[in-house]
Amino acid sequence: MDPATKKPLISQQSDNNSFQNPNSSSARSPSIALIAFSASFAFFFFFFFVLSPVNQIDTSARRLVNPVVILISSDGFRFGYQYKTHTPNIHRLIKNGTVAELGLIPVFPTLTFPNHYSIVTGLYPPYHGIINNYFTDPVSGDKFNMGSHEPKWWLGEPLWETVVNHGFKAATYFWPGSEVTKGNWDCPSYYCQSYNGSVPFQDRVDTVLSYFDLPSSEIPVFITLYFEEPDHQGHQVGPDDPQITQAVAHVDRMIGRLIDGLEQRGVFEDVTVIMVGDHGMVGTCDEKLIFLNDLAPWIPIPSDWVYSYTPLLAIRPPSGYDLADVVGKMNDALQSGKVDNGEYLKVYLKEELPERLHYSASDRIPPIIGLVAEGYKIELKNSKRQECGGAHGYDNAYFSMRTIFIGHGPQFARGRVVPSFENVQIYNIITSIIKIQGASNNGTDSFPNSILLPTL
What GO cellular-component annotations does this UniProt entry give (predicted)? Predict the structure, then answer.
């Protein structure tokens, strides 16, 4: 309210003071002086304690005694989806933050669990142990799946563990590995949610916002927030269907809900929001198939040799087989011209894979790996199915596998565009913002200096 609007109210109140003689000059003079003093004091109070932006910033700064990072994953958010429909909230972050110009580069294989765990550990899959969404330990024979929470599978030090090691609080609203009790992290019930895909997205956002209603010492300095979309729709219909547009719009509304809640609490400009995806998506149809049974004239590939079919072919023959001989015969068949679509698959000994993939330094990785071309699938035999949809997991050099990186907050320049980078760099970015020493990782120590504003 403008102070001028308060003046008539003060005058009206003085006119109603009937105990004074309106004809007495001795009565009028003190009254006028009192009115002037009251008006001046009201103006001073209103300007400096209500309107003053400095005071508002100071209040917010006192509330957030430590830097806070919210890391958001929109699963399967292929780079370019942000332009498929009106996404005002995502573009608000882009306009006022820093964005990877041509997207974020996932690790290989471009699958959900390996990439989510690389983001929070800064490690390539052979070093953090989650080499696929499903795999088998070659020594124990134990099988890993997306519900496996035993610490033996999860190597490295994820960000929530790093944070609590430094005496701060962390919170996770779903993230692969967050339910694992490991080191000083015990997935505390209030700050760690067990995965339940049926929880509405808005409930997830509201829980994250509720952390900012806590006393300042209880507010987590690192928070994860996970959405399954648009990955779920992408698998069903591929990356170009109108249902993808709807899923992207839904995610954008959730970003808006988060921004609104942070603004209502007066902390939006002080909190760092980092929005990423884990991988992209490419359309697939069953005319783009390669059948391993078609290789039988050169070398039979029994089903019990195959640990993963598509898009990552992983084979572990029994002991006694010459692995190089198996690879040689498979490639001879694929290049013979007598195997349908054979030219779209190449098989490697894992140690001979392109070094850029960083996919050999683990016994969990089967010894023979096949790389299939973008959009193609591998099956054991022809099932006569005719299905179209979407898939990921392919070579991370394919542009369709790229996802997004948007950083908004005090240390991200407004409207800045940076070159694409690998997601293993994110761990060091976040530890730099929070100002803690991170664990050893595959990211570059100096990388945060190239993307973050210097701190004062």
Answer: vacuole
Q: Stretch 80-88: mean pLDDT, rounded?
A: 96
Q: How many whole angstroms separate alpha carbon 130 and alpha carbon 160?
A: 17
Round to whole Å and give the CA distance between 205 and 434. Answer: 22
* pLDDT (0 to 100) of residue 49: 39
* C-beta neighbour count of 316 within 10 angstroms: 17
d(CA 433, CA 453): 10
Which residues have CB under 8 Å from 335's CB, separation 6+?
342, 343
Residue 287 binned pLDDT confidence (cut-offs 50, 70, 90): confident
Task: Please give the domain boundaries of the chain with CATH numbers for all domains.
Answer: 68-283+396-451 (3.40.720.10), 290-387 (3.30.1360.180)
Active site residues: 112
Helix (H) or strand (E) holding 213, with range, is none
- C-beta atoms surrounding 211 within 10 Å: 18
Q: Report whether 211 contacts 201 (CB < 8 A).
A: no
Give me the mean pLDDT over the 328-345 stretch. 98
Are 230 and 244 spatial neighbours (Cβ–Cβ below 8 Å)?
Answer: yes
The order of strands in the sheet holding 69-74 is 192-193, 170-173, 222-227, 69-74, 272-276, 405-408, 98-100, 416-418
Using CA of residue 240, residue 246, residue 249, residue 250, what is the dihedral sign?
Answer: negative
| Residues 6+ positions from 150 with CB-CB distance below 8 Å | 180
Task: Name which of 246, 158, 280, 264 is nearest 206 in CA terms.
Answer: 264
Output Rg (C-alpha) for the chain, integer angstroms. Answer: 29
C-alpha torsion 24→27→30→36, nearest 10: -80
Angle value at C-alpha 259, between 265 and 64, nearest 5 degrees: 40
- Which pLDDT score, from 0 to 100, does residue 51 have? 40
Q: Supply angle C-alpha 12, 15, 21, rounded to 5.
A: 170
pTM over 0.70: yes
DSSP assignment letter at 248: H
Number of Cβ atoms within 10 Å of the Cβ of 76: 27
Report phi then psi at 92, rounded to 5.
-65, -40
Task: Quick: pLDDT tens for 144-164.
Answer: 999 999 999 999 999 999 999
